[in-house]
């Protein structure tokens, strides 16, 4: 991060910052931390439903529409990682995060949806902004401008701190006590997801105590850590082959865990460093990114039409934008086809 971030290690200190945001003392707060430590849950707990909550997978038009409904209300943008590549969304974020008390937010592209729904092409708001991210990436000047104006905090709770926080809501006593005997040996950050996975396996009658190594690290991550430390391997491809031979999984899985460690800011310390003057023998290959499954848009439209709470066209359109983010013409084309099919079946 270009803007130095304040590092905090306890949930009590995190709540102090969030209370300051809720009280209007902080105009722009950026909270960065590893996944699985309950950042979003703590924010929801402190703000008590008083904020406009925007998920990271929302479309830019959907974000603008929702901001217009919550003028002057606090705004929480959760999982900002997924909107970095959306230029329109980043542009809105820049406008919303201005340091002025009253900020002008505008949609400078003609939109039939905004006109149909009666949403103004621009408005003013005094909304304060809280951004939650697993990692902060300064990819362009717009993101850098947001970073420069923000109070940035990096949340890195110890494994013991996460364990004690889990005790405030986790109800599986057997699993909780088992983690408690191992938490002080964990070499990396703890995660609420470990508790939930172990509890699910236990309730299904499946082995769950071997999901972590003795040091509290998930087995696959332990293998990756060991391979990254081992300088006898000349290339990352050699490490990937060793990972597969040890039963860790495929080459793709190996590189996925490498990226996860890097996102946790720990890969740099684990990756082997080349000695001065040592020539690079092979270029490190980047693992291919797996494509996300294609969204079933027809199923989304059918679900919207069957939802009795979405009786009006306006409500249905908003639901479409938030669930899919596709174009308006696509929605109406699918809707028309489904209604025609249902009318034919009824007759």
Topology:
Layout: E1 6-8, H1 11-22, E2 28-33, H2 39-47, E3 52-55, H3 60-69, E4 75-78, H4 87-96, E5 103-106, H5 112-117, E6 122-125, E7 129-133, H6 141-149, E8 151-155, H7 159-166, H8 173-180, H9 192-203, H10 219-229, H11 236-245, H12 251-263, H13 267-270, H14 297-306, H15 313-323, H16 328-346
Parallel strand pairs: 1-8, 2-7, 2-8, 3-4, 4-7
Antiparallel strand pairs: 5-6
Helix pairs in contact: 1-2, 3-4, 4-6, 10-11, 11-12, 14-15, 14-16
How would you describe what is shown here?
The chain is α/β, with parallel strands linked by helices and 347 residues long. The chain folds into 4 domains: 6-155, Rossmann fold, CATH 3.40.50.300; 158-217; 218-273; 297-346, no CATH class. It is 47% helix and 10% strand. It contains 16 helices and 8 strands. It has helices at residues 11-22, 39-47, 60-69, 87-96, 112-117, 141-149, 159-166, 173-180, 192-203, 219-229, 236-245, 251-263, 267-270, 297-306, 313-323, 328-346, and strands at residues 6-8, 28-33, 52-55, 75-78, 103-106, 122-125, 129-133, 151-155. The chain has a 6-stranded parallel beta sheet with strand order 1-8-2-7-4-3, with helices on both faces. Strands 5-6 form a two-stranded antiparallel ribbon. Strand 3, helix 3 (60-69) and strand 4 form a beta-alpha-beta unit.
- Unreliable spans are 265-272
Provide the CATH architecture of the largest domain.
3-Layer(aba) Sandwich
Name the overall outline: globular
Q: What is the structural class?
A: alpha/beta
């Amino acid at each position: 991060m270009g803007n130095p971030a304040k590092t905090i290690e306890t949930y009590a200190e995190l709540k102090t910052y969030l209370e300051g945001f809720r009280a209007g003392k902080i105009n722009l707060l950026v909270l960065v931390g590893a996944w699985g430590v309950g950042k979003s849950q703590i924010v929801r707990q402190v703000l008590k439903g008083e904020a406009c909550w925007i998920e990271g997978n929302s479309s830019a038009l959907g974000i603008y529409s929702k901001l217009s409904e919550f003028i002057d209300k606090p705004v929480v943008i959760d999982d900002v990682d997924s909107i970095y590549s959306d230029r329109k969304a980043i542009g809105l974020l820049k406008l919303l995060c201005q340091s002025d008390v009253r900020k002008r937010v505008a949609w400078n592209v003609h939109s039939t949806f905004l006109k149909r729904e009666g949403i103004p092409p621009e408005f003013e708001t005094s909304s304060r902004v809280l951004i939650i991210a697993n990692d902060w990436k300064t990819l362009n000047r717009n993101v850098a401008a947001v970073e420069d104006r923000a109070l940035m905090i990096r949340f890195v709770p110890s494994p013991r701190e996460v364990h004690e926080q889990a005790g405030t809501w986790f109800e599986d006593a057997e699993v909780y006590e088992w983690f408690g005997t191992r938490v002080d040996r964990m070499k990396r950050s703890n995660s609420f997801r470990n508790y939930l996975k172990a509890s699910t396996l236990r309730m299904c009658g499946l082995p769950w105590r071997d999901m972590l190594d003795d040091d509290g690290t998930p087995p696959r991550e332990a293998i990756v850590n060991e391979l990254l430390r081992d300088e006898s391997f000349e290339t990352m491809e050699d490490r990937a082959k060793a990972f597969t031979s040890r039963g860790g999984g495929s080459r793709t899985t190996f590189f996925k865990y490498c990226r996860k460690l890097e996102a946790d800011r720990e890969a740099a310390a684990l990756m082997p460093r080349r000695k001065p003057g040592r020539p690079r023998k092979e270029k490190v290959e980047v693992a291919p990114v797996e494509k996300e499954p294609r969204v079933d848009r027809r199923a989304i439209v059918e679900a919207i039409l069957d939802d009795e709470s979405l009786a009006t066209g306006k409500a249905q359109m908003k639901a479409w934008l938030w669930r899919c983010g596709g174009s308006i013409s696509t929605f109406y084309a699918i809707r028309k086809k489904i209604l025609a099919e249902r009318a034919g079946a009824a007759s």
